Amino acid sequence: MRVCMSVDDFVSAVIDVDYSPTGREFVAGSYDRSVRIFPHAGGHSRDVYHTKRMQRVFAVKFSGDGSYVFSGSDDMNVRVWKAEASEQLGVTLPREKHKQAYQKALVERYKHLPEVKRIVRHRHVPKAIYKAAKTRRKVQDADKRKLTNRIKHSAPGSVTVKPERKKKIVAEVE
Fold first, then answer.
1. 3-state secondary structure string, 21-52?
2. What pLDDT, in 10s, does the model give residues 21-42?
3. Is 33 buried (19+), middle (13-18) or exposed (0-12) by CB count in 10 A?
4. How far apart are the C-alpha atoms of 151 and 27, rounded to whole Å?
């Protein structure tokens, strides 16, 4: 059995992870003072939660019904977040449900357009995390450029390239 999960958005260590009751997504809390919700297959987060005063996140948990996320941080606070950030709390009228379903359908239908794709992918993150991610991208680009040059100026087959996904595997359990 191979245990591998690749998430791309964190700039510091992930401290705690919890799966939703449905098993279709998971929440992760990080040392970079953010809480993120990911689809079960990994990749980029669909939601980012943070506040100015929140410190390093040491515990995250989904509620029993999967509608809330709880996080405990170094500043001795437990915060409650909505699992679906734009979801309205309280009773929704049938007309409002219809409107929300229609808006989701529109986004799903036109998600291939560049303007809609940019809006859907946008995540506001604190300045410190943004700068750290930018620096991390620079380092990754430099490493990629270095590997390309090594391959280009070495004998064919002498440099072996290990895929990024395999680099992140710590151990394989049989």
1. CCCCEEEEEECCCCEEEEECCCECCCEEECCC
2. 998 999 999 998 999 999 888 7
3. buried
4. 39
Beta carbons within 8 Å of 62's beta carbon, 6+ residues apart: 18, 19, 20, 21, 27, 68, 69, 70, 83
Residue 5 confidence class, pLDDT cut points 50, 70, 90: low
14-19 β-sheet, strand order: 14-19, 25-30, 35-39, 47-49
**Between residues 168 and 75, the one the model is more confident about:** 75
d(CA 35, CA 16): 10
The answer, as to whether pTM is greater than 0.85, is no
Tens-digit pLDDT profile for residues 71-105 = 999 999 999 999 988 888 888 899 999 999 999 99
Kindly state the tokens that stand for 77.
């606070």
φ, ψ for residue 103 (rounded to 5)?
Answer: -65, -40
CATH dotted code for 1-87? 2.40.10
The encoded tokens of residue 63 equal 């509620």
Look at residue 4 and tell me whether its pLDDT is greater than 80: no
Distance between CA atoms of 120 and 118, rounded to whole angstroms?
A: 6
**Residue type for 41, please?**
A
